[in-house]
Automatic annotation (TrEMBL):
An example Gene Ontology biological process: maltodextrin transmembrane transport
UniProt xrefs under InterPro entries: MetI-like, MetI-like_sf
Function statement: Part of the ABC transporter complex MalEFGK involved in maltose/maltodextrin import. Probably responsible for the translocation of the substrate across the membrane.
Family: Belongs to the binding-protein-dependent transport system permease family. MalFG subfamily.
Name of the protein in its database record: Maltose/maltodextrin transport system permease protein
Cellular-component GO terms for this entry: maltose transport complex
Primary localisation category: membrane
Organism: Gracilibacillus halotolerans
Length: 430
């Protein structure tokens, strides 16, 4: 007598539909009661505690308020961004709930049997452990990094400024108007082009100088003929030991037009006159800033390159000597490629850091001197201009728009350079 094998009628489609209707129902259908109950509790708690807040947030980010003096547009914008983040987090969990229910239903249909309660708890703990450890950090990252970034991006598309501040006035969405002002309105256009061009010059020249100086000194000190290497390295690295802001303030005093040591004790005794306008002429101020940044930045580069040079095998240089290579050829084909291969990411970071190097620009002369017809100083870079727009002029939306441009420039530059450099290739393919 032949007995037919019993047919498993467990339907994955039913589990999928139930999990879509309400989180956890699909798991209950699969007889995964603990997991299903957990999903149900989470969804009910979310609906009870957050539904009203999310409704307010979505209305607020869409309208930014309708009654001046009563609705606070910035608060509503914050509520809206938080609501969107909460919806994204809950939506991700909901998608996971649906996929999990369908996946387990398919396994059950194919003959899989759920483990016992104690085994399922142990299995669930093992699988969830990485998420339990990274979950708090991820949540902190979302609300300390992603949220401020989204808030700044949103402000760039509003008209939030000193004369249009809530709660007395309502902030409105203005689209790309702030970006258009940067390229069409004379005051903003002239200032933006001037500040942007100086920012590029400052980034390239100051960073390149400190890299060149650090490389030159590292190669020089690493030469076999140089004695007292430890003493020389200690002396050369001393500028790095002094806090940067202290050095900047000292240099600001030394280059003061009226009482600074550079004019009073060097320029005037040697050349006469009243000295050079270090703080009142943008040309001289920019030169000083580049020199100071070179002084402050080269010790790190020097230490970095010194470590790389000490790891290069002498056999390579001996082989080059046998082939009759000159000092320049050895530097070009052995030393420099190894240095760039090992330090390219850090050198890129030096450029991106100086692009946003607020400290030296502001501490030395607060971005001055003033320039007629512009609302930025003669040595302001984009980040220091953003600071002034935010705290001095209360042009919050314009500051946010420029910050967005800064972020895009730095991101594009970093991605392009990382793709072009060989720092992420295999050493054998160098």
């Amino acid at each position: 007598m032949n007995e037919n094998k019993p047919v498993n009628k467990h339907n994955p489609n039913i589990a999928t539909i139930l999990s879509i209707l309400f989180a956890g129902l699909g798991q209950l259908y699969n007889k995964r009661y603990l997991k299903g109950t957990s999903f149900i509790i989470v969804e009910i708690a979310f609906i009870i505690t957050s539904l009203d807040f999310i409704n307010l947030g979505l209305w607020g980010i869409r309208t930014l308020g309708t009654i001046p003096g009563e609705d606070h547009s910035i608060y509503l914008l914050v509520y809206g961004i938080v609501s969107i983040l909460l919806l994204l987090i809950v939506g991700t969990l909901y998608v996971f709930n649906v996929k999990d229910a369908r996946k387990q239903a398919i396994k059950i249909k194919n003959g899989w049997k759920a483990p016992r309660f104690s085994e399922s708890i142990k299995e669930g703990y093992d699988k969830a452990f990485p998420y339990l450890m990274t979950g708090p950090g991820l949540a902190l990252l979302i609300f300390t990094v992603v949220f401020p970034l989204l808030f700044a991006i949103a402000l760039a598309f509003t008209n939030y400024n000193l004369y249009n501040s809530p709660p007395r006035n309502l902030v409105e969405w203005v689209g790309f108007e702030n970006f258009q002002k940067l390229f069409t309105v004379n005051l903003w256009k002239d200032t933006f082009l001037s500040v942007f061009s100086w920012t590029i010059v400052w980034t390239i020249v100051a960073t390149s100088f400190q890299i060149i100086l650090g490389l030159f000194l590292a190669v020089l000190v690493n030469d076999k003929r140089v004695k007292f290497k430890k003493t020389i390295r200690t002396i050369l690295i001393l500028p790095w030991a002094v806090p940067g802001f202290v050095s900047i303030l000292i240099f600001a005093a030394m280059f003061n037009d009226q009482f600074g040591a550079i004019n009073r004790d060097i320029i005037i005794p040697l050349f006469g006159g009243e000295g050079l306008p270090w703080l009142t002429d943008p040309f001289y101020t920019r030169i000083v800033l580049i020199l100071i940044q070179t002084w402050l930045g080269y010790p790190f580069i020097f230490a970095l390159f010194s470590g790389v040079l000490s790891s290069i095998s002498n056999e390579w240089y001996e082989a080059a000597d046998v082939d009759g290579a000159t000092r320049w050829q050895k530097f070009r084909h052995i030393t420099l490629p190894h240095i760039l291969f090992a330090t390219a990411p850090l050198l890129i970071i030096q450029y991106t850091t100086n692009f946003n190097n607020f400290n030296i620009i502001y501490l030395f002369n607060e971005g001055g001197p003033a320039i007629q017809g512009q609302n930025a100083g003669g040595t302001d870079i984009l980040i220091s201009w953003v600071y002034k727009l935010t705290f001095d002029m209360q042009e919050y939306s314009m500051a946010a728009a420029i910050s967005l441009i800064i972020g895009l420039i730095v991101s594009v530059f970093a991605i392009f350079q990382f793709r072009r450099t060989s720092s992420f290739k295999e050493e054998g393919n160098m």
